Structure formats: structure tokens, C-alpha cells
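User: Study the chain.
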Amino acid sequence: MPRKSEFEPLRVVLVNTRNPLNIGAAARAMSNFGFLHLRVVNPYELAFREARSAVGAAPLLARAEEFKSLGEAVADCSLVIGTTALSRRDPQHEVRELQHGARLIRKRLTTGRVALLFGSEKRGLANEDLSHCHWLLHIPTREEHHSMNLGQAVAVCLYELARDAKSSFAPEKPALAAVGDLERLTSILLDALQASGYIKNPHAKPKSRSAAAREEKVRRFIRRMILSAAEAELLLGMLRQILWKLRCGPAT
């Protein structure tokens, strides 16, 4: 999963939520995927902070911010996105599918706070709520059953943000070995092969065509391994020890 700081600017805003269990379920989904800031506007049941559905997310639910109006809840956000089941024939807003919308949200999170709104279980976001939105986000569902449970909708949206972020915020790969280290590795491997009798002196002058070809093969072999700097250092240490044993002979 991406680091928590990647989604620090996102605010999940639940507007006029009727069932405290749905608020708890939303908090649990947020905690699952690393979204830590919940805001509620005029919740129907004020006892939502004790919702048993917030399994493992009680601290997040305890920190939830309450607002009397949606305008206050999103005042510090530079982008406000509403969610919709598209039950309205004319939503008066640009509507984006979840996958595309998630990419746009992630880009905006690098420049400022983003509010993601979810309406009440019964009616969704009202027209007044939608007037605060820049655009709308839609979860594709089958036409015969387009509405989703509030907690599930929150989970699906946040999962898409987190899932898509995996490729964007991939963990850093270890530094690769420098060419000079690979060349030293090639040289000591050739020395070890010569000491073991596998090849003749690789450093003899002038170099025969077969000896030069053999050295080139070993060099290409080492480079195909795509070693990290740490792996190259480890292999160099092993080969040095092997070469020392070959040259000194068995201990008596």
C-alpha cells in the first residue's frame, strides 16, 4: 500500500448520513486503505462515534470532524468531488467513471486538499450539495441495481485510489552496481577460473582470440545478472575468499 502521507490531503465527507453503522463502516474502509481524515455533515444519529462497525478504526472515528454545513466542511479544499449513482437524468456536472476519476484525484492530491463527498443512504447528495462540487464520480454498476450501500461505496472508491496508486508509488529499487564494480567482479572471476584450472591464464600477453572471446563471455555473463551494488560487493567477497583458498591450498 502507498505511504499514509500520499493520501494525507484527502478528506472523506459524509453528508446527512442516517445510519451510524454506515459511518463506522466508512471509517473502517478508510483505515484499511490509509485514508485518515473523516468529516461528517449533520449526521442523523449523533452517537456515531461508538459505532460497532468501525472495527479497528475507533481512533479514526473518534477524530472525525463535525460540521453544520457542507460549505464549512469543504472550505479548505481546492477540489470537491461528489459521488453519484446517476439516478438523475441531468446531473448538471461532468461525470467521470471511477477508474479515470481516481487518477485525476491522485494528481490533485499533490497540490492541495481534495474532498470526496458521499450523500445520505436514502437520497444521495442533494442539489444544494452538488452545487459545491467541481465534478462527479460514478461507480459502474448494473442498470437494474445501481445504488450501493454507503459503506461499500466508500470502500470501493478508496480501494480504487489505493489500488491504482500501487504502480505510482512503487517502492524504490536498490541501487545497481557500478560498471567499475562489475569489471572488478569480471576480473576476479577470471582469476578464480584460472586458479581452478578451468581456463588458462586470462591475463597472458598477447591475448589469444579464444582467450579474448572467453573474457567477453564472462563480462557479458556478469552484466546479465543485473546485480545491485550490495549484491556485487557480496559476490566480490565470496570470490576473493575462493581465490585465496585456491592459491594457498588447503590448510594443514
Summary: DSSP finds nine helices and seven strands in the chain. The mean pLDDT is 82. The longest strand covers residues 10-15. The first helix runs from residue 20 to 33.
